[in-house]
Design a protein that fits this description.
Elements: E1 6-14, E2 21-25, E3 30-34, H1 37-58, E4 77-85, H2 86-94, H3 106-114, H4 119-130
Length: 134
């Protein structure tokens, strides 16, 4: 099944004097905030991408977004349509780094440190060679 490239979900931005702008996605039961409108929108996009990626990965149903015109807001709130481009979110998850603990003889560790060896790069190169990944 072809994955959706771009999602659009309504968010409610809540403005309270002296506080960060609160951002709530009613369809996803997820919330974040930002120090100003730009920061709130960036935080909203990041959260939207994380939530939807998690649902995709877990094989869960992606809820349908409520039309923006159906979102009811209070006087200090504004409904905003937030979009997220999923291919970049998915690629970031594929390319993210993970930590691994390795054990090696102390003499080999000392020699590698003496020669300023980049342990991560050597391990990556060795794994690619071992797995024939070029």
């Amino acid at each position: 099944m072809k994955k959706v490239e771009r999602y659009f979900y309504p968010a409610v931005f809540t403005y309270t004097p002296g506080q960060e702008i609160a951002v709530d996605f009613p369809d996803l039961k997820a919330a974040t905030s930002g120090t100003n409108e730009d920061d709130a929108l960036i935080s909203a996009r990041e959260l939207l991408g994380c939530v939807l990626f998690g649902l995709e990965e877990d094989g869960e149903k992606i809820p349908s977004p409520t039309p923006l015109s159906n979102i009811k807001v209070e006087e200090n709130e504004r409904a905003v349509l937030v979009d997220v481009y999923m291919p970049s979110i998915r690629m970031a998850q594929v390319n993210r780094s993970v930590n691994r603990t390795v054990t090696l003889p102390a003499w080999l560790n000392a020699a590698a440190l003496e020669h300023n060896v980049n342990f991560s790069q050597v391990l990556q190169d060795a794994l690619k060679a071992q797995l024939h990944l070029g």
